[in-house]
Amino acid sequence: MSKGRILIAKPGLDGHDRGAKYVAHLLRDAGYEVIYTGIRKTPDQIVSAAIQEDVQLIGLSLLSGAHNVLFERVLTLLSEKGADDILVFGGGTIPAKDIPRLRSMGVRAIFTPGTPAESILQTVSRLLSKPPSGDRGQEAITT
Fold first, then answer.
1. What are the backbone angles phi and psi of residue 66, rounded to the nearest 5°?
2. By 3-state DSSP, what share of the chain in percent is helix, strand and coil, each rounded to 5?
3. Which residues is 33 bridged to in the sheet?
4. Is the pTM of this model over 0.85?
5. What are the tens digits of pLDDT across the range 33-56?
6. What is the domain partition of the chain in residue ranges?
7. What's the CATH superfamily of 5-129?
8. Helix (H, G, I), strand (E, B), or coil: what is residue 125?
9. Labelling 101: which of 27, 63, 74, 107 has CA 20 to 30 A away?
10. What is the C-alpha to C-alpha distance for residues 131 and 39, in angstroms, rounded to an integer?
């Protein structure tokens, strides 16, 4: 039995997918059902896939520097489509100065290069263990 359903996506024009694939395999090996969208997906494609696949979490991998815009668009689309119960986390080369803004938008966790695998797994487990109704709060940001 799966521990939960998670969509991993690479929004924007960035084609480097090593980190996204690493996290997808890590989560799959830990018992999660993972849907990997591949590279160069639009926020609309990501949100549509997340709703269609009935996931609980979306993980975005960003290395392009467009993280503020892309996270915000995904979160806005989730809200507009009545799917804001799907939580969003992310990772990549995201400057520390941008993390508070992402957090205030509703991004639940950020994993920067070098984050230990165990920390990723523990954070994802905590995000999925929160009740689906009501405020799930902000997960501590992992750096």
1. -100, 20
2. 40, 15, 40
3. 5
4. yes
5. 999 999 999 999 999 999 999 999
6. 5-129
7. Cobalamin-binding domain (3.40.50.280)
8. helix
9. 27
10. 31
